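I have been asked to look over a protein record a colleague put together. What it holds is a sequence and that sequence's fold in token form. Please read both lines and tell me whether the tokens look consistent with the sequence. I do not need a full report, just your reasoning and any doubts. This is what I was given:
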Amino acid sequence: MSTEPDSFEKTAFLKETVMAQPHHSGGEVQAGTGATQRKPTSAYRKLRHVLAKTPLRTPLTWLQHRNLFPADVFFGVYPKSGSTWARFVLFELLSGMPAGFKATNQMMAGIAHHRDGLHMLPGGGRLIGTEEQWRKEYKRAIYMVRDARDVLLSEYAYLKALDLYCGDLDHFIKTFVFTCVTAYRRGPWHRHVPSWLDSPIAGTENLLVVRFEDMRKDPVLWFTRMVEFLGVDVDQEKIRLAVENNSIEKMREKENLEPVRASIKGRFVRNGAVRGWVSKLSPEQVRLIEEQAGSALLRLGYPLSSQLNADAATNQATMNVATDFPAGVSQSRLAR
């Protein structure tokens, strides 16, 4: 690993370059200009997607993890776990600039393009996104998780929008839980999670685990914890504003201004649902997922469907007792 960060002059130049460029890139589509829209995915990208599921991926991943700095911190996540939203908010807090698809992806880059990332952390460190399982290069990290049943639905919709998956949901579920190399090439969700939770940095001050659902419930609290973990001093009002600037509605407005490929056949920014799977997956589909991923779900505090059903039945029984009293008999008399 390198010990000296790149020149901060390069960082300043990159800021100016990104902010001066039009809000479109090779991976995006132009909307409202009369130009011919791109297909969701190019032939080259489809080929790259296929090759990434072969042994060729191993040396490429090794190359991507070269030239890291000791002060770098990693933002680990399994794909489609809400990381775009989290990265937008963190980008505003760390850079002081408005978050957008182009600016965030270039200046707070993922592991494949980390050389272009801004040095925004103490000691000249960068916040580098990664969708890999834990690796020895990850000395300090935030690991963001989301309920696998919601992750699966989001991943399915995204890959369908990009024409990278043509099967039905039933077949995709089997791919998601059974194959060593999933459609996203990161391994099954229930192997990704323990790779981080059982890593050498787990249970130490060098790993902060955050749940997407907790962040949605109280974003100011959790973004406060994240910036504190990163060693950055940001006041509460700035955190509140950054969260407000990157609500679902605001992020969809940003997507309208900077359409990405997935925008062609729908929305890249979806609704960020919590427990959306309850109304979208059949009992048999849920059973198959939980058979493979159940222990990891429970470990992260996500109840299984059987627990939710039992809780619902208990609540219904309690409501029935509370409302079904004989005429003239009060609930307090019944209790005696």
Residues 1-36, 328-336 have pLDDT under 50 and may be disordered. The two ends are 72 Å apart (CA to CA). The beta strands are 73-77, 127-130, 141-145, 207-211. The chain has two domains: 8-302, 307-336.
